[in-house]
Amino acid sequence: MLFAPETWPFTVASFLLLLFALVECLAMVIGASLSQSLQQLFPDPGEGIAGPFDKLLDWLSVGRVPFVVLVVLFLASFALTGFALNLIVRQFFGVWAPTWIAVMVALIVTLPLVRLCGAGLARVIPQDQTYAVSFESLVGRVATVVTGTARPGYPAQAKVANEHGQMLYVMVEPEAQGMTFQSGEQVLLTRQLAGNRFAGELNPWPDLL
Fold first, then answer.
1. For residue 42, what is the DSSP state?
2. Which residue range or ranges hold the Inner membrane protein YqiJ OB-fold domain (predicted)?
């Protein structure tokens, strides 16, 4: 079924799902974020939603849920619905469903499903992330390493509060050669390297926090 000519849209969706997962993992390794990069292409929730396309994005919770999460939900739902439909048609009629009919049915099922899951995730995901605050404004703030060990050229994930008290997640690495940051250590962000990747040094004033 995976390579049947009639099911190619769902096979493509499955491979795109794997590709998105791979690219996001690679982006995290180099200290970037595919989700945040794509998020900047779309309007913030409640910001000038007027056109039909903007209303559709708002209906799908774009801006309230990380965009890559919604893409994954869409691709997974579309592929699973298409394959399930073809299995049912094959079981009862002995042939695969016509491609255009299967795609239309899959879209009709997928969009409300993504809307439902997105609305649920928007209520569950802590609203402590913002895409409106520049990463550059975090320079000079103190971050706490949450996972991994950071070495020069090999950043670890850390969390840092912005000027509004909202928590953001960034990637940090030592400014000086031979230094490491362990999980739980506080790091003063000294400069932005690229995107959400920063160089830093151990917080020289821990008693002030």
1. S
2. 137-198
Q: Which domains does the chain have, with CATH numbers?
A: 5-124 (no CATH), 135-203 (2.40.50.140)
- How confident is the model over 113-123, as a mean pLDDT? 82
Dist CA 58 CA 86 (whole Å): 31
pLDDT of 203 > 50? The answer is yes
Which SS3 state, helix, strand or coil, does residue 174 take?
strand
Weakest mean pLDDT among 15-29, 109-123, 136-150, 193-207 = 15-29
Identify the burial level of 153 via C-beta atoms within 10 angstroms of its C-beta, where 0-12 means exposed, 13-18 middle and 19 or more buried.
exposed
H or E segment to which residue 167 belongs: strand 167-174
Burial annotation 12-38 (CB, 10 A radius, 16+ → b, else e):
ebbebbeebeeebeebbeebbbbbbeb
Q: What is the pLDDT of residue 131?
A: 44
The set of residues, in sequence order, having a beta carbon less than 8 Å from that of 131 and lying 6+ positions away, is 36, 39, 40, 44
Q: Is the model's pTM score more than 0.90?
A: no
Comparing 28-37, 101-110, 116-125, 156-165, the range with the smallest average pLDDT is 28-37
Distance CA 149, CA 184 (A): 10
